[in-house]
C-alpha cells in the first residue's frame, strides 16, 4: 500500500487536532481562567442602550462584569431576561451588566428586530452586538444563554450555560467582588 505524502500530512494534522481537543477536554482549561484575563472588546451598542455612546467595552477593566450572550430566537434566553433585570436593578456602579448577541444582523434579523425584542423583554441595561465573534471566541461561548462573571481584572470567575436565577447570579457577582 502506497501512502501519498499529502494523505500522510492530512492524517497527521487530524491527529494533532484531536489531540489538542482531547487535552482541552481533560484539563478543563477555559479562556480567561488562567490569571491573564480576557482582553476588552469594543462592541456596537444596539438601540442606544449603551451609557455614553455607540459602543460598549466588554468586559470593562476595573469593574466586575456580568456578560450574558443571548439570541432572540432562544426561549431560555427570553426567560433569562427577568432574572437579569432584577440583578441589573440591584447591583451598584462597580458592576457592569451587559447582554450580547452574536446573531448575524442584516438578513432575516435586523438591528431593529433585536431592539424590539429587547424592549418587549424589558431590557434596560446595555445590549450590544458581537458581529465579528471576538467576545464570543474570547469567552469560548458555544451556546446561549451563556453567562460569564469576570472579576475587576477581567479574569473569568464563573461561567454557565443555560438558565440561572437571580440569586445564583447575585451570589456569583459577590464572589467575584471578593
UniProtKB/TrEMBL annotation:
GO molecular function, one term: oxidoreductase activity
InterPro entries to which the protein is assigned, alphabetical: Redoxin (IPR013740), Thioredoxin-like_sf (IPR036249), Thioredoxin_domain (IPR013766), Thioredoxin_ResA/DsbE_sf (IPR050553)
UniProt xrefs under SUPFAM superfamilies: Thioredoxin-like
Domain Thioredoxin positions: 17-178
CDD domains reported in the protein's UniProt record: TlpA_like_family
Protein name per its UniProtKB record: Thioredoxin
Organism whose genome encodes this protein: Halovivax asiaticus JCM 14624
Pfam family, one: Redoxin
Parts forming coiled coils: none
Domain of life: Archaea
